[in-house]
Design brief:
This protein has eight helices and no strands. The chain is mainly alpha-helical. Helix 1 (16-53) runs antiparallel to helix 3 (79-99), helix 1 crosses helix 8 (146-157) and helix 4 (103-118) packs antiparallel against helix 8 (146-157).
Length: 180
């Protein structure tokens, strides 16, 4: 039985010029909106995580956070003060990121907060890792995710002096990556 091997016509909507136009539109929108969306999304995370720290027992990080602050301050700031202080700090970061107000100061507060947030990995390795560095506990995973927040803050920080993403490669590099 002979089979027909007629070529299948490419649908009009799948032609490369249409895909290229769509790709350009999407890339242009991403370049113009991504930093703002990243800033707002990061801010909402800080608002949310900070707000739940105001409610006793609501944050899974409450005990570890208060013990970390107690250790870092050599016992000068106890749990009754450290948790509301941390909650307020995170909410302030969240407000700054969501609104874009005082962005440099907000990012400085975020950087300091991240130092404290990552420190339990060194201060309490028995609680943050189950069986070595490759097996973080749930608390360890909660802390390690901050690496993504740090990277997001770095991208946001790159825009405070007018930096931006561009949808098209720069003409002065001939379309090549200038770092190569």
């Amino acid at each position: 039985m002979a089979s027909s091997t007629r070529p299948v016509a490419t649908p009009r909507w799948f032609r490369s010029d249409r895909l290229d136009r769509l790709d350009r539109r999407i890339t242009t929108w991403l370049a113009s909106s991504s930093i703002t969306l990243l800033r707002i999304a990061s801010g909402l995370v800080f608002l949310w995580f900070g707000a739940i720290k105001f409610i006793a027992g609501a944050s899974p990080a409450e005990d570890l956070a208060t013990r970390t602050i107690d250790t870092l301050t050599f016992g000068l700031v106890g749990p009754s003060l450290s948790l509301p202080l941390l909650a307020g700090w995170e909410v302030l970061i969240g407000i700054g990121l969501v609104t874009g107000w005082f962005l440099r100061a907000t990012l400085a507060l975020l950087a300091l907060q991240m130092i404290g947030a990552l420190s339990p990995l060194l201060l309490f390795p028995g609680e943050t890792f189950a069986a070595g560095i490759l097996t973080p506990t749930l608390e360890g995973q909660y802390i390690i995710k901050n690496v993504v927040i740090i990277a997001a803050a770095m991208v946001i920080g790159a825009t405070v002096r007018g930096g931006r993403l561009e949808a098209e490669p720069s003409l002065d590099t001939g379309g090549r990556d200038p770092s190569t």
